[in-house]
Known about the structure:
With 213 residues, the protein is an alpha+beta fold. The protein has two domains: 5-142, no CATH class; 150-212, Orthogonal Bundle (Arc Repressor Mutant, subunit A). The protein has helices at residues 18-26, 53-61, 89-95, 118-130, 151-155, 159-171, 182-189, 193-212, and strands at 5-12, 29-32, 36-37, 43-49, 66-74, 77-84, 99-106, 109-117, 135-142. Strands 1, 2, 3, 4, 5, 6, 7, 8 and 9 form a nine-stranded antiparallel sheet that branches. Strand 5 and strand 6 (77-84) form a beta hairpin. Helix 1 (18-26) packs across helix 2, helix 6 packs across helix 7 and helix 7 (182-189) packs across helix 8 (193-212). The chain is globular, with a radius of gyration of 18 Å.
Amino acid sequence: MIDECLVVEFSVTGDDCPLADATRKTNTTVDARPPQLRHDDNALLRFSASKGAEELAETLDTDDRIRYLHTSSTDSRTNFRCLSKHPCVVHELTDAGFMAETLQYREGVERHTGAVVGHDVLQGVLAAAAETVGVSLERVFPLGSEDDEAVAQRWDVTPAQESALRKALDMGYFAVPKKVTASEVAEELGISKSAFLERLRRGQAVLFEQVFG
């Protein structure tokens, strides 16, 4: 049994997949779940956007690679579901052992966050990344043990929400008075101010609900 599990973050540029193209054309940011590849090689995509959703939907609807596009609204976000006939970069990494958890597309640039089991698997994933368009390793760190559970596991927040909460805390956003603005924290995270505030609000809501019942 391999005890070591590593959290890995990849940055992807130059991808021509529908989501990368659409966010590049509309200057929007999309948070996506890992795509599910069907036997017919169509990928099931599920993602959401808080700004520019209408333009994003129009762009995707005219893309011949996208089928059965459906949208629904929840709070300030628009949720999308569709089929894509275009292969996703993350599938190349998954085949090598990368376990994707969150994907973000921001103006054509992708950030994939997930895990690999052990350094041997990591080397295989890195080899696959080297053969894939514009993939670069951003960060690697050990996943906490069962005795030191990750916040996302213990409190049921998403990895993106945990990242926003941690960065805000580290930078002094919660200090009195505040040491940084929401825009400054968002810039460090590489997301829009509205996306940061949305993750912060949702993460805090989950934590408060569990703490206060």
